[in-house]
Amino acid sequence: MTVLEIDRPTLDLEDIVESAASALEGAPALEVIRWASATFGDRICLTSSMSDAALIHLVSKVKPGIDVLFVDTGYHFAETIGTRDAVEAVYPVNVINVTPSRTVAEQEAALGPRLYGRNPDLCCHLRKVEPLGRALEGYMAWFSGIRRDETASRRDRRVVEWDRKRGMVKVNPILGWTQEDMDNYMSDNGVLVNPLHYDGYPSIGCEPCTSRVEPGDDPRSGRWAGMGKTECGIHL
């Protein structure tokens, strides 16, 4: 039985990750998406920060109606919320708005104001990592849009990975894409893009922790600038 012929009812998730990762390394994104969709059926979802809809566009071509999880931290730019609403209106997907257990006001009452400035790791955990973990519990696998060229911590990632923290499979179809690949795909296919990209924000997170980037600088240098932090924790 090849990696593309897995019998889903007898699937052992950890056992297939290695063979799938090897077989699909370097494969076109759509081939990776077809494999994952055939393997996991309705037990796979997609996560999106609504920076752009490239992965949503790709996956929805293979699996229309897929659940798209968006973590609404309460700190997003208005443009990001607008992109989420546009994605829901334009693409054949089911957008699920995931929220933290506490509102911003409740968190500030319990932990003090501006936790993102005092302890950004804790803030990210409470408002991103923990709620996404809860939302993913009903699935066997999830599609992520991470790329190797984004951060040093992502350079050794694999197209199919065992997400040990969540006990599920993580699929990264565009892991090997460059920014040029992304730009070309979005331009060629008229993909929705968060308008902040055209205003000096090549990497978009929560508004308090995201700043403009000068042309030529590291695209992620505007995330948690000056805090020695490069990841929110979702992909670690």
Task: Explain what you see.
Pathway: Sulfur metabolism; hydrogen sulfide biosynthesis; sulfite from sulfate. This is Adenosine 5'-phosphosulfate reductase. It is a single chain. This protein has eight helices and six strands. It is of the alpha/beta class and 236 residues long. The chain has a single domain, classed as 3-Layer(aba) Sandwich (Rossmann fold). The two termini are 32 Å apart.
Offer a concise description of the structure.
With 236 residues, the protein is an alpha/beta fold.
Topology:
Layout lengths: L12 H12 L4 H12 L3 E4 L6 H9 L4 E5 L6 H13 L3 E5 L5 H8 L3 H4 L1 H16 L5 E3 L16 E4 L4 E4 L7 H11 L47
Parallel strand pairs: 1-2, 1-4, 2-3, 4-6
Antiparallel strand pairs: 5-6
Keywords: Cytoplasm, Iron, Iron-sulfur, Metal-binding, Oxidoreductase
EC number: 1.8.4.10
Family: Belongs to the PAPS reductase family. CysH subfamily.
The rounded distance between the terminal residues' Cα atoms is 32 Å
Biggest beta sheet summary: 6 strands, mixed
Helices and strands, in order, run as HHEHEHEHHHEEEH
Mean pLDDT: 91
Care to count the β-strands? 6
**Helix content class:** 25-40%
**Integer tally of domains:** 1
Strand content: 5-15%
Number of helices: 8
* Global structural class: alpha/beta
Gyration radius from CA atoms, angstroms = 18 Å
From the spread of the alpha carbons, the general shape counts as: globular
CATH class: Alpha Beta
CATH architecture: 3-Layer(aba) Sandwich
CATH homologous superfamily placement: HUPs
Strand order of the largest sheet: 3-2-1-4-6-5
Spans of at least 5 consecutive residues with low confidence: 1-10
CATH topology: Rossmann fold
